[in-house]
User: Which sequence fits this backbone?
């Protein structure tokens, strides 16, 4: 990924540099600016951007945050345990 693609992606989401810095947990605006002006960004940063892009896509569909609350995860684990128990007792 090139730096200008990173900038375009950030702007397409409507994020400021500060928003992206917060998501990536970096404190240096200079670092982000250097990435956005670089011929190629570090691979680790590119992977983080890919992950953030997926999270944002899920949020836009409305399923990410509501789909995986701790209560729902615990409930699904309980259902799975019951299935295993019921199959074992047959």
Assistant:
């Amino acid at each position: 990924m090139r730096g200008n693609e990173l900038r375009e992606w950030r702007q397409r989401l409507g994020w400021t540099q500060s928003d992206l810095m917060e998501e990536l947990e970096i404190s240096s605006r200079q670092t982000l600016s250097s990435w956005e002006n670089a011929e190629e960004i570090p691979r680790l940063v590119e992977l983080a951007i890919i992950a953030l892009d997926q999270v944002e896509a899920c949020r836009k569909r409305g399923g990410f945050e509501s789909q995986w609350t701790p209560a729902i995860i615990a409930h699904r684990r309980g259902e799975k345990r019951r299935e295993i128990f019921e199959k074992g007792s047959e």
